[in-house]
Design brief:
Blueprint lengths: L1 H5 L5 E3 H17 L4 H15 L3 E3 L3 H14 L3 H17 L5 E2 L3 H9 L4 E2 L11
Parallel strand pairs: 1-2, 3-4
Helix pairs in contact: 2-3, 4-5
Length: 129
């Protein structure tokens, strides 16, 4: 995982992404008798890592595009927001964006929208520059 942070590429996430990860940790830890100190350290690590990412705000344009993606790819609303955010980032950055997710439906939609994709669960290797 160290290599992920040493490769010099833009890492970005929709603002929703960080919230989803923190929510998942808090909910999972709460149901498994994990001490609050462990949960707090985990959340702090997530927030420190998230600070290394550029955040894509969900503007009105992103929401409109997400609505179109829901219809064209039958995505869940949060997945559509992630994909719409990536499309907006690609437009602003003017460079190829690798779309990273572990959800098969979302990855298929990202492929259909022209993104190269990476599923870190299926293929944990991080793309090279």
């Amino acid at each position: 995982m160290t290599r992920f942070w040493t490769v010099r590429v833009l890492r970005a996430c929709s603002r929703l992404g960080c919230l989803e990860v923190v929510s998942a940790v808090v909910r999972r830890h709460g149901g498994q008798c994990v001490g609050s100190d462990v949960t707090d350290r985990t959340v702090q690590t997530i927030l420190m890592d998230a600070a290394r990412f550029a955040c894509v705000n969900a503007t009105e344009d992103v929401f409109v595009k997400a609505g179109e993606l829901v219809l064209s790819h039958r995505l869940r609303s949060a997945d559509a927001l992630h994909l719409a955010s990536a499309l907006r980032l690609a437009e602003l950055a003017g460079t190829e964006i690798v779309f990273v997710a572990s959800d098969g439906e979302l990855l298929r939609a990202a492929l259909a929208e022209g993104f190269p994709v990476l599923d870190p669960v299926a293929s944990p290797a991080v793309p090279h520059e």
